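User: Could you write out the 3D structure of this protein bound to alpha-L-arabinofuranose? I've included everything you need below.
Assistant: Certainly. Input first, then the structure.
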Amino acid sequence: SRIPDLPSDTVAADKHKIVLGFSQLGSESDWRNANTRSIQEAAKEAGIELLFDNAEQSQEKQIEAIRRFIERKVDVIAFAPVIETGWEDILTEARQAGIPVILSDRAVQISDPSLYVTFIGADFYEEGRKAGKYLLDKKRNDPGPVVIAELQGTEGSSPSIERGRGFRDVIRERADMTIAYSAPADFTVAKGAEVMRGFLRESGGGIDVLFAHNDDMALGAIEAIEEFGLKPGEDIVIISVDGTRKAFEMMAEGKINCVVECNPLLGPILMQAVREIYEGRTLPKRIVPPESVFTEVLAEKEVANRQY
Ligand code: AHR
């Protein structure tokens, strides 16, 4: 016999639209803006209602946003934590409200990892190692010493901590390689230029290598190096992380030597995870997107393929 049509309000109740509260940490870099676009587009595509908040690099604002999501009783909360520490209390509030939490892009340091369901994002330690390996290879016939300057990202953030650690663990192999200059430059072009100007002044231009924790800071540093009368990519080897189109253009011009890719296009993976959590499925604790390393040799060919 024919199944009777359901009353329309029953159909609507069955078709509950999943609500995701997402706290983005800021808009400091081209990578970040690509990450935001990817999340917004993927939510639309997946039919997930996205409540989006930009915390402008403030942990306090992120905590406030997450608290608002809890009050709104969203189905799932995801956030990209600006720094690693200080999340226990707000994650406990989310758990008490029965709302599952996903970490997107960056990691947190917490004593109870069950406070989040899964962490979707790059392996920053491995990115630092890849940068170090490139440098060892690039300088394999250079007797040294090799003076390195490092532009760190946001102080206390997981990409900055882990990229720095991975890089050091690899270059340690060569005792004549020293990181003589290292300071945070907040992952921005302007700060990258400012901090690099300081390094160049202090060293009198005696820097062989720059390791920038992201492309935006590398672009700022290139400005500073040129102002100082040196040739980026020749007088100073430049290694950067992210893989933005602008960095590829610089690499094609020979001003950046190597870019370690960090994939910002996390939106589709995130939406799939949100749906699976909502449906009660179990997810792996760690999800890492695929990533590559690019050097000058491939830059020109690859530039047109960059999606961000
Ligand atoms: O957390 C990822 C990092 O944050 C990217 O490398 C950087 O560009 C961004 O600001």
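The two ends are 55 Å apart (CA to CA).
User: Perfect, thank you.
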